[in-house]
């Protein structure tokens, strides 16, 4: 998503964390994309380096989103700096939004004076600090819920910020929301939406997988394909892109209840480069 500078202040907000159901924390196997070409793992982000509450340890030391040296997740993830705005009329505040507890990272947003103060994270990959690559695989385990007016996006975004292509796992964070999203091609002049046919809900833990290769793109929930460009006639990205997740104001700016909250919980993110 496009980054916009802004300014805001907010008191710290931390919500209770959840424990990952370990029996389901597995990596699905793609039945469509060329599995044997994803051999080079470039990111393996788990939150097992200790608990870090919200506060100054989450304030980036640069516009690149690098965390302070005392944060055990420095060099493992990056985040938007304080005051950067979201394109959906929100403001990012990592010092209040981010925390790690019990092996789970949480991104917590709060509505203050009609503005959503949210946050974002991006894995730091070994092949590129922001994970920009042409073709690859991303697997992440996540759940999210919140009040009306909040939205999230876990997305593949062009590394040049052109917006030429964009694959979004996104939507409202209300309890009962079924996983869904949009694929944008030819900038936003062309797009197609997708929705989990099995009714998988965003508020439950699921393992998500995005495969992208010379030939197409496909997305899976717990190993079940819910979207693909193969056979659709839609073009697939052929430019470097990166993966990130962010919590912000919901598109369309629906009404917000004062002091309402929303939370994304992330168990891990794994990334592989495409090896031809």
Please outline the helices and strands:
Blueprint: E1 4-5, E2 40-46, E3 77-78, E4 84-86, E5 90-92, H1 94-97, E6 98-101, E7 104-112, E8 115-123, E9 136-146, E10 150-158, E11 166-172, E12 180-185, E13 190-195, E14 206-213, E15 216-221, E16 224-228, E17 241-249, E18 261-273
Parallel strand pairs: 5-8
Antiparallel strand pairs: 1-4, 2-18, 3-8, 4-5, 6-7, 7-8, 7-18, 8-17, 9-14, 9-18, 10-11, 10-17, 11-12, 12-13, 14-15, 15-16
What do these coordinates show?
It is a single chain. This protein is mainly beta and 276 residues long. Helices cover 1% and strands 43% of the residues. It is built from 1 helix and 18 strands. The chain has an 18-stranded mixed beta sheet that branches. A hairpin with a 2-residue loop joins strand 15 and strand 16. The longest helix has 4 residues. The chain starts with a strand and ends with a strand. 46% of the residues are buried.
Into which percent range does the helicity of residues fall? under 10%
The rough form would be described as globular
Give the radius of gyration. Answer: 17 Å
- Characterize the largest beta sheet: strand count, sense, and whether it forms a barrel: 18 strands, mixed
Low-confidence stretches: 1-29
